[in-house]
Design goal:
GO cellular component, one term: plasma membrane
Distance between the termini: 96 Å
Oligomer: single chain
Shape: elongated
Family: Belongs to the COBRA family.
Helix content: 10-25%
Organism: Vicia faba (Broad bean)
Protein name: COBRA-like protein
Keywords: Glycoprotein, GPI-anchor, Lipoprotein, Membrane, Signal
Number of helices: 4
Radius of gyration: 29 Å
Number of strands: 28
Structural class: mainly beta
Strand content: 25-35%
Length: 449
């Protein structure tokens, strides 16, 4: 009987372990792990909504977008912010932004609202907007730099008058279902959450004004939501091997919405060079140069020189999309020797320290007004630089692919690397020794004979 009780006890423990494992597996499957970026674990876009004053039927609000991502820009044609009103709110007027649709405002006879849509979508104003429509940090066409690259350009704001909403903290209801396009899909936003009222400095910085009510919305990026396939790839070459490791075939998918054309195609003559992307066309259909990889962007890593105490790498970024310029592009590379970067030519460089103690990741971006714009495919559709790194003799080696990057990101999206077994290999000097010995032996034999 005691033996049977022991077996039953063990069986019960086994069932408990199976149950725990089952619940753990469920949590893993339903967790939003695809939105976690190991190189930028806290990166997000935060939307802050501040009610600054009450009006006769609602309030005046300031809405601010903060791009707290270390290296992911929001490029042209810019961000689009949408939400659903909790009641029957309307937007009377806006400064610094505009709603894309006015909606049905027929019931208003005298003063017509800016937007009557239950689920409005708001976009930034273009540069050069009239002065009476401008607001602080507005009018950049929706372009936001990353927080790591340029914090001053990572903020956008607009002001709006909201009506039919209530006139107190108890009657105002928080909007729901926030959506952020930047400029295409990829961001998922959480619910609006009340936060302590924001304290804002006046322009002369001598007085602090406090919002009457504030709430935040946090949006995180997932490359899996943005693209079914990678949007860039990496090729490799070295000074010690004639072999060039090209991007994998169909690295960015060969069955996608992209149109592939050759350099002599007549379609290229029809491309409007002055308006390659429009706000009404959030995700313009790519027009790519025909390649094996069919990627809009290729990053090439070339090991150029090997000195006694230093080594040099050349980095080139090539654009194969005939319809898109990349404004304020950013390239992130993970490599163990980036902790000893000595000099970077033609690019700006900033180390990224998501975990502080590990310094193996850095961001490269263009010099302002020089090469911060990556042009569309063609003769000018590339930017390049060289990086000089000091050797750590305890770790440095050119063998087994150590000198190649571990991860590469372009504009925040991870690029596809070639498989490790295809990397350019280091010539085996030990293999050449017998050949030299045989040659010397033949020469000596010929002399003596």
């Amino acid at each position: 009987m005691e033996f049977d009780n022991g077996k039953q006890h063990q069986s019960g423990k086994f069932r408990e372990l199976k149950l725990v494992a089952f619940f753990a597996l469920c949590l893993i499957l339903i967790s939003p792990a695809e939105a976690f970026d190991p190189l930028d674990p806290t990166g997000n876009v935060t939307i802050r909504w501040d009610i600054m004053s009450w009006t006769s039927d609602g309030y005046m609000a300031t809405v601010t977008l903060f791009n707290f991502q270390l290296y992911r820009n929001i490029m042209n044609p810019g961000w689009t912010l949408g939400w659903t009103w909790a009641k029957k709110e309307i937007i009377w007027a806006m400064m610094g932004a505009q709603a894309t649709e006015q909606g049905d405002c027929a019931k208003f006879k005298i003063k017509i609202p800016h937007s009557c849509k239950r689920s409005p979508q708001v976009v930034d104003l273009l540069p050069g907007a009239s002065f009476n429509m401008q607001y602080t940090n507005c009018c950049k066409g929706g372009v936001l730099t990353s927080w790591g690259q340029d914090p001053s350009g990572a903020v956008a704001a607009f002001q709006m008058g909201v009506g039919l909403s209530g006139r107190s903290n108890k009657t105002v209801k928080l909007p729901t279902d926030f959506k952020l396009l930047g400029p295409g899909p990829g961001y998922s936003c959480g619910p609006a959450k009340r936060v302590p009222s924001t304290v804002i400095l006046t322009d002369d910085r001598r007085r602090k004004a406090q919002a009457l009510m504030s709430w935040n919305v946090t949006c995180t990026y997932s490359q899996f939501l943005a693209y079914k396939n990678p949007s860039c790839c990496v090729s490799l070459s070295t000074f010690y091997n004639d072999q060039v490791t090209a991007c994998p075939t169909c690295a960015c998918g060969c069955q996608n919405n992209a149109t592939c054309v050759t350099k002599e195609s007549k379609i290229l003559k029809e491309v409007d060079g002055n308006n390659k992307t429009r706000k009404s066309d959030i995700t313009p259909k790519p027009l790519l140069q025909c390649t094996r990889h069919l990627c809009p962007i290729r990053v090439h890593w070339h090991i150029k020189d090997n000195y006694k105490d230093y080594w040099r790498v050349k980095i080139a970024i090539i654009n194969f999309n005939y319809r898109l310029n990349y404004t304020q592009w950013g390239l992130v590379v993970q490599h163990p020797n980036l902790n000893n970067v000595t000099q970077v030519y033609s690019f700006e460089y900033m180390p990224l320290l998501p975990y502080q103690a590990i310094n193996d990741t850095g961001m490269f971006y263009g010099l302002k007004y020089y090469n911060d714009l990556l042009m569309e495919a063609g003769a000018k559709g590339n930017v390049q630089s060289e990086v000089l790194m000091k050797k750590d003799k305890n770790t440095f080696t050119l063998q087994q692919g150590w000198a190649f990057p571990r991860r590469v990101y372009f504009n925040g999206d991870e690029c596809m690397l070639p498989p490790p077994d295809s990397y350019p290999f280091l010539p085996n000097s030990a293999y050449r020794l017998p050949i030299i010995s045989i040659t010397v032996y033949v020469i000596f034999a010929s002399v003596f004979m």
